[in-house]
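pasting for the record
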Amino acid sequence: MRCALTITGKVQNAGYRGFIEDKARDRHLRGYVFNASDGSVQLVCEGAGDKIDDFVDVITLHEKDIFVENILKDNVVDPVSPLPDTFGRVKTDTKEDTNRKLDKGVDAIRSVKEDTLAIRNDTGAMVSILEKHTGLLETNTKLLETSAKFLERIAEK
């Protein structure tokens, strides 16, 4: 069975094509997937009907970064072109798409850098607090030792 799927929703710029590719290969489907200029993700797949139905269920995500609103499935009755032996992605990104994705990556790296600096600052503050508590612990230990010696002397008398 060969079918074409058009997937709409929040489905681009989130790694969805890679997810689709992995799930299609897991099910030994043949075909390809690409981002369409209208914001949808489109694919053609071929395999056993039950595997395709399972595949459609698995790729219907409702998460923060990927939210599938609809999957339109059309059976391809008279296939015109051959499909690759394994499922893969077709690169359709324009220069603007690539630059936008690179900008998102740079923003993500900056966020990680800021989080790392915050953790380092928090760690420094925790070390300072621990050092203060260690000093207090040493002082309290000395007081307890002195008190124990004093009580021993009183007990001896």
